[in-house]
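P.,

For your records, the input lines for the assembly:
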Amino acid sequence: MAYDAPQIKELILEILPGAEVQVQDMRGDGSQFAAQVISTEFIGKNRVQQHQIVYKALKGKIGGELHALSLQTSAPE
Amino acid sequence: MTNPLHERIKNDVTSNDIVLYMKGDAMFPQCGFSATVIEILNYFKVDYKTHNVLQDKNLRDGIKEYSDWPTIPQLYVKGEFLGGCDIVREMAANGELIAHFESVGIEPKE
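Structure tokens returned:
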């Protein structure tokens, strides 16, 4: 089933409560999303580890591959 | 409990300075994300080795397990998994990538 941007945001927030999450549907058809995630959980973790956390939240839920998601993560300033 | 494929990957990424697991090859990337990483590596004029995961299903699955990372391309520098397209692009844009290459002794070729 197709996911939309608010559902992806929900999935990320389930695993990272309190995170600042922005998800955009880049083409408006659910085929390409861009997400920006800022979370205190990311403090002390490198980018690979940060992305892995988000990928786990979405595992198997938006297509077999998460290719449709462009991701930017950071810890709060 | 060693996985022969993981051993092969480990050996490959540690014996080559820069290794990119991608779809297609450097001449003809077969996916936009792989093409982006190739463009970045070419821009910084560094030597790299590529593997086309489209020609090897085992490698395509194995590399994802090896790094616990669900997508291709995957860039390895001196044995370390640096990231996929999003991370490499971000690091290239903010100067981290070139600084990382310098810090591990990788120089642009002439």
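Two observations worth noting. The longest helix of chain A spans residues 47-58. Residues 22 and 36 of chain A are 5 Å apart (CA to CA).

Regards
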